[in-house]
Write a structure and sequence with these properties.
10 helices, elongated, about 210 residues
Length: about 210
């Protein structure tokens, strides 16, 4: 269950540009790891999952040996890149959890808010293209399946009756992905939908 969220593509491209202009001194191991992931995302969006480790290393501005130090295989690299995408959306949802809202439906309400964050259409398409490519990899598909199961279990425990939960999440996911196909909806429409979906959740948990 992956809602459309703000793309990380811009951050990836910025990281790669930093490497290309010579940002190498003082770089930590974690910095290098993130730059490799950034370069992998860029290469895969452009060339698909057939992009070689040599190409990705070149994009990152490091040697292939430096890349393999962080990711022993291409499959490991692609899995890490996919996991970063899944974690990014979970972080968006967690960031929307209200500190004063501890009742039933708290996670569903946060999921709705995260899914309806305004997005740049071009960045969303880039992220969609990346994920579509990654999902052709069996190990990534398995990660996606596990992530979906985790979301399902977490949301089922949130106290929202299933018919309402399924309806509001489907609406949030679908509306969040709308910029993939056309220009984004007016802000007033997005805000009203968010209010309406959250009101449905509130009524459902209040009985």
């Amino acid at each position: 269950m992956m809602a459309a969220t703000a793309s990380m593509a811009g951050r990836y491209d910025t990281a790669v540009r930093e490497v290309r202009v010579g940002r190498t001194s003082g770089r930590t191991s974690e910095d290098t790891r993130r730059l490799v992931l950034a370069a992998a995302a860029q290469a895969i969006r452009t060339h698909g999952t057939g992009a070689t480790l040599d190409r990705i290393a070149d994009e990152a501005g490091i040697s292939k040996g430096g890349l393999v130090y962080h990711f022993a295989s291409k499959d490991q690299l692609l899995s890490a890149l996919a996991q970063e995408q899944f974690d990014a959306f979970r972080s968006e949802v967690e960031g929307q959890l209200s500190q004063v809202d501890g009742g039933p439906g708290r996670l569903v309400r946060a999921y709705i808010r995260a899914s309806l964050i305004p997005q740049d259409a071009d960045e969303l398409r880039e992220r969609f293209a990346l994920i579509t490519q990654l999902l052709t990899v069996p190990s990534v598909l398995e990660l996606a399946r596990r992530d979906d199961i985790r979301w399902t279990e977490d949301l089922e425990r949130d106290g929202v009756p299933e018919p309402v939960r399924v309806l509001v999440l489907a609406a949030a996911d679908g509306f969040g992905g709308a910029p993939l196909w056309a220009s984004g909806p007016p802000e007033r429409v997005r805000e009203q939908l968010q209010r309406d979906l959250i009101a449905m959740v509130d009524r459902a948990v209040e009985g």
